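User: Here's a chain of 104 residues. Predict its fold as tokens.
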Amino acid sequence: MNLPPYIDHVQWVQTQVGPSLQIHPTSSGRKTTSDNGADVAWAEVLALAPNADTAGMRAQFDCHWTYARIVAPDKPSWNIEPDRPVVSQQEMINSMCNPGGPEE
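Assistant: Prediction complete.
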């Protein structure tokens, strides 16, 4: 099992869709199968960016944690935005973790 830390660093950037938190997972974060990995990784994100603590940001993070690690395991960062709408899990999946507009 791959052990924490799961998040290397985070960085707020300004994009065409507004502010975006770029989350850079560690190799361990990309590969872990820990049952509580998402919760541990989210706690690491919040330790680095406390202002990311919103329901919509967590939902986007969970989508990336669950699906982006499989679909795009080498994606440099998982980008989540506070201005995206809170949607159902199915809408989140259908939008490829980017509800309300294109990926930044």
